[in-house]
Amino acid sequence: MTEKQENILRAALQLFAAEGYHATPTSKVAKAAGVSEGLIFRHFGSKEGLLQGILDAGEEAGRKEIGLLLAEKDPESLLRMAIHRPFQVAEDAGQLEFWKLIYKLKYELGRTGEYGRDQLEKALASSFRKLGYAHPQKEASFFLLHFDAVVAALVTGTLEHPRSVRNYWLAKYGL
Question: What is the pTM of this model?
Answer without folding.
Answer: 0.79
